[in-house]
Design goal:
Shape: elongated
Radius of gyration: 26 Å
Order of helices and strands: HEEHHHEEEHHEHEEHEEHEE
Strand order of the largest sheet: 2-1-5-4-3
CATH architecture of the largest domain: 2-Layer Sandwich
Strand content: 25-35%
Length: about 350
């Protein structure tokens, strides 16, 4: 019972906690450490600690540990840059403690506290608030435009009945077709009107459905790789809305591809993840990665605003609609520019959301 309580306490911490044996191999990790290194405890246990970090870019934490002995005093470094084995670079405070306990002789405790994560959470919250405000404004404008468009279309239809010259009817045809085009654009701007109907859904089934849709349009134009975690539990969500959200993001990835285009669908489970003001014990992470031309520097943080796009034929509504759907499900979309291409990470709480 005491051990269970201790594990629960350690799992609830914002710090990543790892214990290392005398050979500097991992013998304990808490949930936050699993989230930090993007791996389960079964994968991390028994691993050499220095293998958790980049073998190309050195980190002070590994060099300090190699010189550390259990009889030494605790060591702390603030705002150190740590490069993980997956290439991700973070700013963190870390401490190294010898465990002064006869039952844990030679054990070293490492505590890592990412400081840039709090800044990222605050930034994401501000961006999401700005984007929601912009979307509400766009919807208000769309509602105001809808009624006049209906009047223009009706007037054009009445006028068409009175015209006897075929050449003149071409003008009313243009009016009606352009009104229809604008009405379709406004319908997309308003986003899905249906109430979110949540049922247990399998995220892998949804991604496979989207993969087939994309490949059907251009089977030889690009490839889609899959890197799935089959152990992800079902998600309580609206299947149709999630298909629309993920399809919008995936179609953006396709449009960004150039020669030898490649997209990767990747799924993972993340523990102790914060979305807005809520910390969730278990979160699903879906990454849609492309090796295309990347996000234009001119767009910056505006890519989720309605009508913002760098594509000649784009409406600029795909990402705002996707973000709204994911927000309805208590989730978050995080874009990241890579050395070659872009990664959109979608985080959705598992369980109650």
């Amino acid at each position: 019972m005491a051990q269970f309580a201790a594990d629960k306490i350690l799992d609830s911490l914002n710090s990543a906690i790892l214990c290392l044996d005398q050979s500097l191999r991992v013998c304990y990790v808490n949930s936050t450490a699993e989230a930090l290194f993007g791996a389960s405890s079964s994968t991390l246990l028994g691993k050499d600690f220095d293998r958790l970090f980049s073998q190309v870019e050195s980190s002070t934490i590994t060099s300090n540990l190699s010189d550390f002995c259990p009889q030494a005093q605790a060591l702390t470094e603030h705002e150190a840059r740590l490069t993980l084995s997956n290439g991700q670079s973070i700013i963190a405070d870390y401490s190294i403690y010898p465990l002064d306990d006869t039952q844990a002789e030679g054990i070293i405790l490492v505590e890592i506290r990412p400081v840039d994560r709090q800044l990222q959470i605050a930034r994401e919250e501000i961006n999401q608030l700005h984007n929601q405000t912009s979307q509400q404004f766009a919807r208000g404008m769309a509602h105001e435009i809808q009624n006049p468009l209906g009047g223009i279309r009706g007037a054009a239809q009445l006028l068409e009945k009175e015209i006897t010259q075929p050449s003149m009817k071409e003008y009313t045809d243009v009016i009606i077709s352009e009104v229809d085009r604008l009405q379709a654009l406004i319908k997309n701007m308003l986003g899905p009107n249906a109430k979110t109907a949540r049922k247990p859904v399998n995220i892998l089934e949804i991604l496979e459905h989207i993969r087939k849709l994309l490949l059907a349009t251009d089977p030889d134009g690009f490839i889609i790789r899959r890197d799935y975690d089959p152990s992800i539990p079902e998600l309580l969500a609206d299947r149709d809305q999630l298909i629309q959200a993920f399809l919008n993001i995936a179609q953006n990835a396709v449009q960004a591809l150039e020669k030898d285009g490649e997209i990767t669908f990747r799924t993972r489970v993340v523990r102790q993840f914060t979305i807005g003001q809520n910390r969730h014990p278990l979160v699903m992470q879906v990454d849609i990665i492309d090796n295309g031309k990347g996000i234009s520097n001119d767009l910056g943080n505006t890519i989720f605003l309605p009508m913002v796009t760098d594509k000649a034929q784009g409406s600029g509504l795909g990402l705002p609609i996707a973000q709204e759907i994911i927000s309805r499900h208590g989730g978050l979309i995080r874009p990241e520019s890579l050395t070659s291409g872009t990664m959109f990470s979608i985080f959705l709480p598992l369980g109650e959301s």
